[in-house]
Structure to design on (471 residues):
């Protein structure tokens, strides 16, 4: 603190920065929240209705994690959330791209429109889909001043400039024309769509837990900010989309770095998985509360197994990353399950899967038939390589179920998506009440992180502006 002489009532030349001053004022105003801080959606309801309610009641924005859940389960969660919150309390829904089954993506959007969910967090999209355009355009109107107003806000999580560019541009003309022809939108909404970007907020996702392109925040964020400025000028938007940052944010230092780089908001993920409100097992949270920054690894992604896409997962105390990588190597090397050497097949069936390939395929084919995906069963019976991929994918789904259920006797097979930000957070809170996950509440973490970030920036600014540092 800067001390003044006794009796000196002159204003502090370096006033303290407050948490409310961090990020974009418009972000707080548009969402009706007190901080430019977001808790992101986490798969299969890990970002639970309880978590969303706690954040909203604290005046903060969060997204329910709908990925991997049925529409009925999501609607049940929305019932709980909306029956608890007031209309003034903000929340949103995470929408994960589903290229193989776009009808599910559309069904979730239609549910959100029906239930008047006013904000979506679009994740894993590589192009604009009709469902996204429908959601964005359905809420477009002009106010009394003639300004375009978007009732349905869209936050796009991206990690690549070419994907960012489509969200920072107007909705594609061909999709708008299709929706208009099918009378899903009005002529006025189609015209208004030419004058706004697809998203209100672009969340730049650097290296993070789960699916990741392993990007560096200090490289990605400036590039995306420049892209935003270029496209906003090109399309002459009255209001340019905001650009925030996610990935690696778990301490005041990392949050301060994001705001110093000009992030309009920050989004946290991994640190919220190890909280009371997160809907995963106590066994997983106990593992997570003790990790350090080096205790994660990259493994093949089960949902994009054949492509070799990566997810960042827990490494400490489990064998999942090594076993998943071994499966991908076998898939690359052999043309079919029958071609795998007997010794390796025995090890997989007896030690890893604890089921035979035949048993797993029987389960998988039954599941696909039940889901109305019989064509995939037919393809697998005709293409041995594809059948091998489907059998190996079973392990990824199985390992995630084990983690959710907290099957401690199968702990070595837990698949837990997380990033090193949680390791950094664990070190920051070591020796405090937050060291134990049983004392970690998502809104308290947000409050403490933003308050400590503001204090850190205040101290650093005063050091920079102290007389001895000024020429």
């Amino acid at each position: 603190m800067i001390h003044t002489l006794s009796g000196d009532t002159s204003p502090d030349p370096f006033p303290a920065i407050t948490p409310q001053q961090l990020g974009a004022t418009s972000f707080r105003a548009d969402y009706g929240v007190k901080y430019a801080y977001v808790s992101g959606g986490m798969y299969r309801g890990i970002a639970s209705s309880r978590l969303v309610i706690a954040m909203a009641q604290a005046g903060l924005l969060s997204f329910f994690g709908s990925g991997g859940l049925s529409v009925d389960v999501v609607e049940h969660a929305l019932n709980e959330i909306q029956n608890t919150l007031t209309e003034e309390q903000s929340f949103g829904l995470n929408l994960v791209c589903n290229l193989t089954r776009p009808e599910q993506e559309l069904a979730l959007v239609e549910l959100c429109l029906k239930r008047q969910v006013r904000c979506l967090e679009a994740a894993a999209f590589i192009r604009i889909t009709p469902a996204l355009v429908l959601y964005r355009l359905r809420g477009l109107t002009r106010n009394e001043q003639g300004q375009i107003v978007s009732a349905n806000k869209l936050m796009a999580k991206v990690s690549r400039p070419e994907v960012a560019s489509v969200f920072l541009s107007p909705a594609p003309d061909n999709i708008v024309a299709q929706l208009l022809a099918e009378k899903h939108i009005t002529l006025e909404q189609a015209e208004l769509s030419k004058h706004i970007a697809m998203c209100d907020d672009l969340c730049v996702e650097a290296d993070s837990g789960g699916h990741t392109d392993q990007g560096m925040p200090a490289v990605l964020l400036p590039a995306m900010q420049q892209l935003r400025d270029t496209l906003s000028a090109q399309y002459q938007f009255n209001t340019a989309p905001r650009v925030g940052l996610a990935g690696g944010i778990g301490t005041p230092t990392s949050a301060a770095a994001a705001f110093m780089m000009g992030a309009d908001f920050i989004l946290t993920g991994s640190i919220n998985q190890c909280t009371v409100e997160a809907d995963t097992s106590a066994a997983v949270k106990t593992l997570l509360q003790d990790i350090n920054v080096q205790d994660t690894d990259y493994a093949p992604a089960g949902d994009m197994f054949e492509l070799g896409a990566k997810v960042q997962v827990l490494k400490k105390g489990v064998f999942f990353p090594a076993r998943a990588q071994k499966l991908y190597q076998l898939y690359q090397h052999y043309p079919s399950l029958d071609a795998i050497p007997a010794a390796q097949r025995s090890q997989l069936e007896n030690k890893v899967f604890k089921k035979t390939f035949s048993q797993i395929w029987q389960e998988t084919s039954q599941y696909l038939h039940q889901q109305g995906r019989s064509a995939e069963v037919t393809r697998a019976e005709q293409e041995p390589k594809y059948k091998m991929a489907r059998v190996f994918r079973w392990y990824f789904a199985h390992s995630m179920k084990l983690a959710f259920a907290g099957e401690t006797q199968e702990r070595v097979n837990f698949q837990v998506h997380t990033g090193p930000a949680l390791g950094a957070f664990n070190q920051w809170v070591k020796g405090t009440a937050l060291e134990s996950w049983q004392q970690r509440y998502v809104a308290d973490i947000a409050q403490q992180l933003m308050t400590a970030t503001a204090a850190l920036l205040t101290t650093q600014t005063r050091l920079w502006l102290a007389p001895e540092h000024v020429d």
